[in-house]
Amino acid sequence: MEVRDIDGELYSAESSAAFAAVPDSFQRLWTPHRLVYIENGQQPGEEACPFCVAPTLDDEQALIVARGVHCYVLLNLFPYNSGHLLVCPYRHVATYDLATDEEVAEIASMTQTAMRVLTAVSNAHGFNIGMNQGKIAGAGVAEHLHQHIVPRWGQDSNFFPIIAGTKAIPRLLGDVRAEVAAAWPASGGPTTDPTEQTR
Question: Where does substrate bind (predicted)?
């Protein structure tokens, strides 16, 4: 059988029913177009590391919402959801095990603050938090450590990203940056959580 991928490229597909395999409970969504991203990784050269360049720019231009002593927080330029934040150390270090104790502590603290701020300003129902360590693991910028904080809401996924390869982002990055930055506590510590009164 011949089918076309999302870019219109023609490729062959065949049923796996006659292959030697043991069935399991997983459903699989095959995305061969992602292989180019994984293999090439869109990796910038060291001299053009966006996470080294960002702190040298003004906050609005770099989409930075908060600066700490060892780390800073900025909006992801290619967000999965509105408010998708990244926590980055200033130091150009590739993986979590190479971060200093001070960097690790501030990444954790800023991640907690980011969750509180996003809950307060956008009523997030949950979060995906994590790091892709190294090019092979799919890190978009593998040589500079960064933690993703993705706010989630009930039913925020639909056929659009799966079938159409498109993600609908309802708010402009500049507007989200201004809102999150304004709500970020000056001390970097806990912000007022509207749900705390009910706990």
Answer: 76, 138-141, 148
* 138 marked as binding residue: yes
Q: What confidence tier does 137 reach under pLDDT thresholds 50, 70, 90?
A: confident
Q: Say whether 41 counts as a known binding-site residue.
A: no
Q: Please tell me the total count of domains within the chain.
A: 1
The domain of 34 spans: 30-185
Q: What is the CATH number of the domain that holds 179?
A: 3.30.428.10
Does 139 carry a binding-site annotation? yes
Residue 74 domain-assigned (yes or no): yes
* pLDDT > 90: percent of the chain: 43
The rounded Cα 175 to chain-centroid distance in angstroms is 18
User: Can 92 be counted among the known catalytic residues?
Assistant: no
Helix H, strand E, coil C: the string for 99-118 is CCHHHHHHHHHHHHHHHHHH
Look-up of token digits 């069935």:
23
- Which among 104, 100, 112 is positioned nearest to 188, based on CA atoms? 112
What confidence tier does 140 reach under pLDDT thresholds 50, 70, 90? confident
